[in-house]
Amino acid sequence: MASNLINLDTRVAVVIPCFKVTQHILSVIENIGREVSRIYVVDDCCPEGTGNFVQQHCTDPRVQVIFNPENRGVGGAVMSGYDAAIADGMTVIVKVDGDGQMDPRLIPDFIAPIVSGEADYTKGNRFFNLEEIHQMPKFRLLGNTLLSFMTKLSSGYWDLFDPTNGYTAIHRDVARNLPMKKISPRYFFETDMLFRLNTLRAVVVDIPMHARYEDEVSNLKISNIAGEFLMKHLRNAFKRIFYNYYLRDMSLASFELPIGLMLLLFGSVFGISHWIASSASGVATSAGTVMLSALPVLVGTQLILAFIGFDVQSVPKRPFHLRNHYSIQTELDKISHS
C-alpha cells in the first residue's frame, strides 16, 4: 500500500552504517526492495572489513561502498551516507542498521509519510504494539522507557516514543539544513537528531515496527553512557527552551516557566529551612509560615505544568520541506510575473 505513494520523481537512498556486521549485511541488502535507487554501505573503519566484504560478495548494482578513514561512530557513518546521497540528488534517505534487527521490507512505510507531505522525518517505534513488547529484552525495555521521557523534554517531540530507534528516513531538504558537524556522532546520535530537527521545526512521525533480536551483539553499555546522556539531555533541553521561547519567539509560556521555577524554589527553600529550625528548637511552625511556604510551591507547580502543556501543544505540525518548497516556488512565481 505504502509503495503505491512513491512516484517516479522520488529517488530513495538507503544508508547502512557498518561495524562488525559481516554476518548480516548481505541478507540486509538482499531484502531491500526495488523502490530504492541507491544503497550506501558505510564502512566505519570496521575491524572485520565489512566494506571489502560487500565489494567482494555483493553484485547489486545499486550498492556503493563508502570507507570512513577513521571510526566516527554510528552518527558519523550516517552523516557520510547523507552527504553522498545529497550529492547524488536523492529525495529521501533511509537509514537501516546492518545487523539484521530492522526489516528492510518496511522501507516503503517509512518513505510514505515524507512523500505524501505529512512528515520531514520518520522513525521506528517498537512500543506501538503493546502485545509484542515482551519480545524486547527487559533491561532494554526499561532503558528505552526512561530515555523516551528524557527525550520528550530535551527534543520537544512529546508525541514520540522509542527515541534510540535507528530505523529512520529523512527528506533531503531537511538533511542538508542540519548542522551535521554539531550532531553527536556516537550513541547519542538518534536523540540529538530529534533536538536538531526541532530547531528546524521539522515534523517527525513514528512508524510502528517489530524489532528482531537474534545473535547480534550490542556495543552499547548503559552503565557507560547514563551520565553522559543525562548531561546532554539537560543541555539540549535548556538550549531548545531558550531558543524557542526567548530567542526566536515569546509567549505567555516564556513567563510561566521562570516565574514558576522561582516560586517553587523559594517555597521549597523557605519551607525546608523553617522545618529544620522548628525541629531543632522544638517549637511548632506557625500556620502563616506554613502557608507562606506552601502557596509558592503550589502556584509554581501550576505555572510549570501550564508551560509543559503549552510545550506539548507546540509540537511542529507543518513539514519543513514543504515550507521550503513553497517559499522557493513563491519567489519563482514573483520573478515570472515581474
Could you state the CATH homologous superfamily of the largest domain?
Spore Coat Polysaccharide Biosynthesis Protein SpsA, Chain A
Shape: elongated
Question: How are the strands of the largest sheet arranged?
Answer: 3-2-1-4-6-5-7
CATH architecture of the largest domain: Alpha-Beta Complex
> Secondary-structure element order, as H and E?
EHEHEHEHEHEHHEHHHH
Note poorly predicted spans.
328-338
Give the number of helices: 11
Q: Span between N and C termini? A: 43 Å
Mean pLDDT: 87
Specify the structural class.
alpha/beta
Strand content: 5-15%
Radius of gyration in whole Å, from Cα? 24 Å
Overall helicity: 40-55%
Number of domains: 2
Main sheet?
7 strands, mixed
Give structural attributes.
51% helix; Spore Coat Polysaccharide Biosynthesis Protein SpsA, Chain A; 11% strand; seven-stranded mixed β-sheet; 338 residues; elongated; alpha/beta; 7 strands
Could you please describe the fold and organization of this structure?
This protein is of the alpha/beta class. It folds into two domains: 2-244, Spore Coat Polysaccharide Biosynthesis Protein SpsA, Chain A (Alpha-Beta Complex), CATH 3.90.550.10; 250-337. Helices cover 51% and strands 11% of the residues. Strands 3-2-1-4-6-5-7 form a seven-stranded mixed sheet, with helices on both faces. Strand 1 (12-18), helix 1 (25-30) and strand 2 (36-43) form a beta-alpha-beta unit. The protein is elongated.
